[in-house]
TrEMBL record:
UniProt entry tagged with the keyword Metal-binding: yes
Protein name: 4-hydroxy-2-oxovalerate aldolase
Matching SUPFAM superfamilies: Phosphoenolpyruvate/pyruvate domain
GO cellular component: cytoplasm
Family per similarity comment: Belongs to the HpcH/HpaI aldolase family.
Entry keyword set: Lyase, Metal-binding
InterPro entries from the UniProt entry: Aldolase/citrate-lyase_domain (IPR005000), HpcH-HpaI_aldolase (IPR050251), Pyrv/PenolPyrv_kinase-like_dom (IPR015813), Pyrv_kinase-like_dom_sf (IPR040442)
This protein's record includes keyword Lyase: yes
Length: 249
């Protein structure tokens, strides 16, 4: 499978969130030439079984698959990675200490991720432990999502944490947290630029959710390099609305 962590540092990428907990959606999206998808286990009804099935579908089609986990507990992160996810995107990261703990839980080692050679990630005990340890270290992608004022204030310290591979800006949550009306309000834009600059100083790629590719291109100029554009829900709605408009015109 493609080393997504390496790709993040080499070129700009546009993927999408997946909200439907069914492998057929992932299979269909694999035909769209997307460089990655993010299974949204935070805000969509994924459970352990459906997460497993969707990750399996992604791996079957060599589609890099991140999981936006619902929380940063060790068991939550362990489950996503043992199922074979490319990496995790952890919401509401507010401090460097929290980021360090997340990194520990994503990687094998003392007080870190528990080892099981029987997992899909370890190819069901057919991969030797040294090989699996090395592959996991090289491939597992850890993304810290900053979407709280505290996270913005600590953006430099979070981005500097060794093992945090990228930063993701949650503009919608920032809008709510700052009491703003839209993601375009000045307080949200200022916070976003602060996070972008922190990521640049740390030499880390920075990502963002946007509604359209046009918005993505605007933020690319500011230094954002990977995007989750909409979701399969949005694409279905927009697609049929567009066809209906043409039909009724």
């Amino acid at each position: 499978m493609t080393n997504f962590k390496q790709q993040l540092n080499e070129k700009d990428l546009m993927g999408t969130f997946v909200k439907t907990p069914h492998p057929h959606i992932v299979e269909v999206l694999s035909m769209a030439n997307l460089p990655f998808i993010i299974l949204d286990a935070e805000h969509s009804p994924f459970n352990r079984a459906t997460l497993d099935q969707c990750i399996l579908a992604a791996r079957a089609h060599s589609l890099p698959c991140l999981v936006r986990v619902e929380n940063s507990s060790p068991s939550t992160i362990l489950n996503a990675l043992d199922c074979g996810a490319t990496g995790v995107q952890v919401p509401h990261v507010c401090s460097a200490e929290q980021a360090k703990q997340i990194v520990r839980q994503c990687h094998y080692g003392h007080r870190g991720r528990g080892y099981a050679g029987s997992s899909r990630a370890a190819q069901y005990a057919t991969k030797a432990m040294p090989k699996h340890l090395a592959d996991s270290q090289a491939i597992t992608t850890v993304i810290a999502q900053i979407e709280d004022p505290e996270g913005v204030d600590n953006a430099d310290a979070i981005a500097a944490v060794k093992g945090i591979d990228a930063i993701f800006i949650g503009q919608v949550d920032l809008t709510v947290a700052y009491g703003a009306e839209t993601v375009n309000d000045e307080v949200v834009r200022t916070a976003s630029f602060k996070v972008i600059e922190a990521a640049k100083r740390a030499g880390k790629p920075v990502g963002m959710f946007v509604a359209t590719a046009e918005q993505a291109n605007q933020w690319r100029e500011a230094g954002v390099s990977f995007f989750a554009v909409g979701s399969e829900h949005k694409m279905i709605i927009d697609g049929f609305r567009s066809e209906q408009a043409l039909f009724n015109s």
